[in-house]
Amino acid sequence: MPRSVAYHRAAVVELLTARLVGRTQPSDSAAVQNQGSDHVPLLEALGRALAVDLHAPRSLPPFDNSQMDGFAVRTSDLADGGAVLKVAAPIPAGAAPEALRPGFAVPIMTGAMIPEGADAVVPIEKAVPDTFPAPGADAEVRLPATAPGTFVRNVGSDIAEGQLALAAGTQLGPAQLGLLAAFGLTTVEVRRPVRVLLVTTGDEVVEPGQSLTAGKIFDSNGTLLEASMRQAGLEVVRTGISDDHPESLLAVLRGHAAQVDLMVTTGGVSKGAYEVVRQALAAEDVDFVPVAMQPGGPQGIGRFQGVPFLGFPGNPVSCLVSFEMFLRPALSQVLGTPAPRPVQQARLAAGLTSPDGKHQVRRGRLSNGVFRMEGGAGSHLVHALARSNALVQIPANVTELPEGAEVEVWVL
Amino acid sequence: MPRSVAYHRAAVVELLTARLVGRTQPSDSAAVQNQGSDHVPLLEALGRALAVDLHAPRSLPPFDNSQMDGFAVRTSDLADGGAVLKVAAPIPAGAAPEALRPGFAVPIMTGAMIPEGADAVVPIEKAVPDTFPAPGADAEVRLPATAPGTFVRNVGSDIAEGQLALAAGTQLGPAQLGLLAAFGLTTVEVRRPVRVLLVTTGDEVVEPGQSLTAGKIFDSNGTLLEASMRQAGLEVVRTGISDDHPESLLAVLRGHAAQVDLMVTTGGVSKGAYEVVRQALAAEDVDFVPVAMQPGGPQGIGRFQGVPFLGFPGNPVSCLVSFEMFLRPALSQVLGTPAPRPVQQARLAAGLTSPDGKHQVRRGRLSNGVFRMEGGAGSHLVHALARSNALVQIPANVTELPEGAEVEVWVL
Fold first, then answer.
1. Which of A397, B87, B171, B256 has the least C-beta neighbours within 10 A?
2. Chain A residues closer than 8 Å to B67 by CB
3. Is the peptide bond before B129 cis (omega within 30 degrees of 0)?
């Protein structure tokens, strides 16, 4: 009996967890992963995962500063319903200001340091006159009564020195890298990427750029999966195409087992007469299982010389669906990166039928909440796939859906 | 009177269109952009935009092939309610098969070429016996009547040679690159990235890694925006921090005008007393305009020596919001890349208030359809921003929303 999509995904999660996450710690996977780390400049860390908890090396803001363009004041000077104050020399940006003398107001710009003695900022719009006097002039300004703390951004109000700023495993995007820069950091410790060996198999498969004889096709799986894996943050090791001799494939796997965290093959896992991956791994700790899914039903899963192994089917659409349904979500769950695909509810532009007992994944275009299928169910339709931007998920127990039915869509 | 978010975005679109899209063609912007192109290996094109319309250099599938493991047959042999046929030697994967003789059925695996004379495939499950005979044995098989074309994937049924495969401007992801590989291509012509000069300004701003004296802060805008721009496919030219002397900034802009497609500055655009960008560009074709948005209200827009110019405000949250609200969507609209941010409807975890007449963009975490704000409205809160994964859009005419209100969220 075929296993469910959820069951197989859980098996992939378990396989990766055992390899990538230390076993000596409790289940907080993000904190205990096992891959090692690299120190890299901030911008090289874009999209990668923080290796360790990062605590704020300084407070942000680093000092009390003004939220407005206006006058820094002692509010006690204005307690009696406001007052006319003498205007001190303005505070230059980026300088440590002099202490504010009683009876004075000092022009201050947004972000500038609040001087000692001042405890609030009155915005220029509330001053009379509501413009700054020319520098050097002997000016006065009328300001209203103001509560202490008004328009002051206090030191540490965003984050205080020593607090947890970003947890280990956080994916570093523009905002996270901006925070590290605000702390004054120039490098960051990120996890080493998971290294995957990717092998496409088949006597009928030819490298793009070579000549194509009758009966042969170009390898699209290798490019499609390497691109998917790179997008997901993996480091991909390619070996070219392995032919249909089990010994050829075994030699490739043996030659790389010590250097990779994961092995993925394409093709050779179904029930035909010439299934090279099944034959090569018959004596290994690898199961070949039917998953109740279309496309991508036949799957290999296990370990080769201790290294996690996944055998995807040989059609390009099956490869992409296998990656998106199993490997990518398992990486998200175990490592926190890549981010899961956005999931949306949408309406079908046209009705569909689906085989009973199989979770069907159709490809198509999501636009304005409507999902329009591209191409038929055939797993060889790589041009239809290339026109698609989303996958629709049809549960195993659904056999027919009308036009307009609400469906779950994963955005690629 | 402040301009609306939509008005300002349209102005940015117009500014970029004039630079990046040729004016001699009709409005199909994707087909006529103006940046030049590079030929790169397929995997280096990941995330980049196709420079030209790409027509299929060959048909896919490249030949009629089997959709199932089974027997290739002449359906006329089975017309009389099925028949017992002699089993021919199996078709090896990747080979040109011999023609099928009348009265014979030939074992064929999924993807293998249909032999001349055959016009359908009977799946192995429908054969009696339902297993393939050992090679070399003199075997027979009973097969049912079958309609012509059954389980045959016809040459060109995915795409025929010469048809438009991918339109100019298409963003190349795993599926699109997989299609190019299936065509046998090894390189692809992609648009040269848009080159942007990014200058952060301010006497108070110090490069990360240097020492910080009182009143100064580290530059986070540069890192935050460079990361955002790289993510969006731009090539970023950085020049370090420009101080508050207008001549310093002008020298930087003049020095790069001939090499870039766009200039972006941060800081110095509001109404304070020391606004270096405003002062430097007072005599140029640049407007400093209030946009009815919070944060990110003050914006500069125009041209410097003919090059499109955008002046973002100086706080990091304002920079990110300016990029996401104006520059990124304008690039998506004009060039087709990057893909627009996914938009979702969500419910507010807590009520909020918003200033009348200003479109407010708050930061927070979207999870399971619920949006929870991180930090207050202050545009200096870069740690709160780093905890966020989404922006909520509060229209200008909304002043208050209760807990549970439905809102539009952009997923970062």
1. A397
2. 378, 380
3. yes
Q: What is the CATH number of the domain that holds A358?
A: 2.40.340.10
Chain A interface disruption, residue of B383, B389, B410, most A CBs within 10 A: B383
* Residue B177 bridge partners (DSSP): none
Interchain CB distance below 8 Å, B274 and A93: yes
Domain assignment present for residue B159? The answer is no
Check whether residue B174 and residue B136 sit in a common domain.
Answer: no
Please tell me the distance from the alpha carbon of residue B96 to that of residue B114, in angstroms, as a whole number: 9
CB contact under 8 A, B159 and A383: yes
Q: Do B175 and A412 touch (CB under 8 A)?
A: yes
- Selecting from B273, B315, B342 the residue whose C-beta is nearest the C-beta of A109 gives B273
- Alpha-carbon gap: B335 to the closest alpha carbon of chain A (Å): 17
ipTM score of the complex? Answer: 0.86
Residue A33's pLDDT band (cuts 50, 70, 90)? low
The predicted pLDDT at position A30 comes to 43
CA distance B61 to chain A (A): 8
The number of CA neighbours under 13 Å toward the Cβ of B111 is: 26
Treating both helix axes as pointing N-terminal to C-terminal, what angle do B174-182 and A221-231 enclose, rounded to 10 degrees? Answer: 160
Across the interface, whether the CB atoms of A158 and B43 are under 8 A apart is answered no
Q: How many distinct structural domains can be found in chain A?
A: 4
Dist. CA B401–CA B351, nearest whole Å: 5
pLDDT of B32 above 60: no
CB contact under 8 A, B386 and A178: yes
Give the chain A residue whose CA is nearest to the CA of B221.
A178
In this structure, how many other beta carbons lie within 10 angstroms of the beta carbon of residue B327? 23
Q: Across the interface, do B412 and A173 touch by the CB < 8 Å criterion?
A: yes
What does the alpha-carbon distance between residue B257 and residue B249 come to, in Å, rounded to a whole number?
12
Mark yes or no for CB contact B272/A110 under 8 Å: yes
Same domain, A147 and A228: no
Q: Which of B110, B166, B277, B328 best probes binding to A when mutated, by most A CB atoms within 10 angstroms?
A: B110
Here the CATH number for the domain that contains residue A43 is 3.90.105.10
Reported as a single tens digit per residue, the pLDDT across B170-184 is 999 999 999 999 999
Mean predicted confidence (pLDDT) in A321-326: 98
Which two structure tokens, joined as six digits, stand for A305?
A: 């010389």
Among B58, B380, B389, B408, pick the best mutation site for testing chain A contact (most A Cβ within 10 A): B380
Which DSSP symbol is given to A115?
Answer: P
pLDDT tens digit sequence for B196-238:
999 999 999 999 999 999 999 999 999 999 999 999 999 999 9
Look at A223 and B177 and tell me if their CB atoms are within 8 Å: yes
- Taking the complete model, does pTM exceed 0.90, yes or no? no
In a domain, B356, yes or no: yes
d(CA B238, CA B144) in angstroms, rounded, equals: 71
Which residue type is seen at A184? Answer: G
User: Cβ distance A205 to B111 under 8 Å?
Assistant: no
Q: For residues B356-365, give the mean pLDDT.
A: 97
Q: Same structural domain for residues A263 and A209?
A: yes
Residue of A64, A190, A218, A320 to mutate for B, most B C-beta atoms under 10 A: A218
In the prediction, which pLDDT does A1 show?
Answer: 84
Q: Are strands B359-367 and B390-394 parallel, antiparallel or unpaired?
A: antiparallel
Structural domain range at position A251? 5-17+193-335
Q: How far is A16 from chain B (nearest CA, A)?
A: 23
Q: Is the peptide bond before B61 cis (omega within 30 degrees of 0)?
A: yes
CATH number of residue B315's parent domain: 3.40.980.10
Q: At what angle do helices B5-20 and B328-335 cross, to 10 degrees?
A: 50
Arithmetic mean of pLDDT, A74-97: 92
Pick the residue from chain A with its C-alpha nearest to B229: A174
